[in-house]
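== Protein entry: sequence and backbone fold ==
=== Local backbone shapes as whole numbers ===
==== Amino acids and backbone structure tokens ====
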Amino acid sequence: MDDSRLMATDSRSNEAAVAAQLRAENRALRDSLATVGDLALAGEVPLDELLQRIVDTARALLRARYAALGVFDAGGTITRFIVSGISADVHARIGPLPRGAGLLGHIMTERRVVRVARIADHPTSVGFPANHPPMTSFLGGPIERHGVVYGNLYLTERIGAAEFSPADEELLVFFARQSAIVIENARRFARSRQDEQTAQIERSSLEAIFDSLQDAVFTTDLEGRIVRLNRRASAWAGTAAIGRRVAEAFALVDELGQPLASDSAMPRLSSEDRLLVLPQGPRIPIERVVSPIRDAEGQVVGTVQVLRDLRPQREVEQLKANIISLVSHELRTPLSHIKGYASTLLQPDVEWDRETQRDFIASIERQADRLARLIGDLLEISRLDAGGTATMERIAIAPEALIERGLRQASANAGRHPIAVSAAPTASTVLADPSHIERVLTNLIENAAKYSADDTPIEVSVANQGNDVVFSVRDRGTGLTAEEKAHLFERFYRSPRVKHRTPGTGLGLAIWREIVQAHGGKIWAESVEGDGSTFRFTLPKAEEGAR
């Protein structure tokens, strides 16, 4: 074989070797880019992990001993610096994040690729910090897409060569461009996930608010069928309401109790009062409000309907009426008496004897006391509403002492009623504010006398019951009806049987209930109509250390 043939054979062999090497590098590039692309498409890899894999892939692809990726904010401060090829121990010894000075800062500012054989020879080089591995050759450039820089890639120490080649530089540019797409997609996915989580939180919050509404709220479609309802609406419907018409789910009647005609698919959009028959049987007054639901084009696609319980509103209205009645009658009556007696005494043309004057003055005093009690009740209710019971001074005291104090105060208003007291010999000391419990007992004894016939006995007793001590006041009056017992402790409530013939405010029992409950006890009434009533309340036993 002559020399020319030998040279041609060697040339073909070299070309084949170069071609094989290029094919291997292309496969490696495709595999590396596919790895990064798969990460972006998966969308489940945290951004820091994705950036780390980009750095690792770049180091392997460009055959660098070390690689890093710097991410910086709008002010040029590096916020992340992810490395590859440097152990965690070495990285920790290097110190804090780079400040973006020197060659790294030059790439950040110029936003172009830099390739040098010796880092120290570049005019912007400022050297390395202590404990930094020695590095000579360098290749770096921005990860950029559409004018947005996502970070910079830095590679040092080309393996198998003294420096990085122009082909390495082209490969870095291509890889950085693809990495920018990967990071952009990852950030979009992260924003999308964050938006979805935010939307889910908002939906959950709205659902919680929707379900916590005290009104019954539900939506209907164009056919008038219920699509969604909150917890109160579900309770009022009683059975599964989704998919049913409003008239099928809610038994609405008019003021005369007549069932309403079946609702049309799109009822009149308005506000109206109705009665709702609950599944348990009772009827409650409601206000029904119907409003349209419109789509983006403004077309009506359904309704949102609200059934508002009017009972609290009616109670407030009744309370206002009671207060007006109280002011107009209970306040006016004693004031009229006081004014009348005082004016009579001051008449210049009449000379009253001393006995008559004493009677008039005694009447004035009684009416003034009545007026003072009324004002005191109002002030007490206001004070209790403001948490005044927290200032009670509780002490350990024998129950007999409390009863004695109550009897002493009630004696003037107990009339001709004989009062019998019985206390169990084992009755325990209680923890109570004496002045407040004295008022409770006084009020209960006076009420027993007020609502029972003269000369009928009143019994006051006390006994242990578990961890409590029970006080009882029994009368022989007409007793209470079931309706009266249901409202007995409500403010301003007075039985229709006695409100026009027996003076009172309807505040006493409400006040005493607040006081007893503030002591940790409870108060209730036991009664059979026509056979008298027994009012009982409990107080906690005093602890050994308080006795």
The longest strand covers residues 283-294. Residues 14-191 form a domain with the Beta-Lactamase fold (CATH 3.30.450.40). The chain has a mean pLDDT of 82. The radius of gyration is 45 Å.
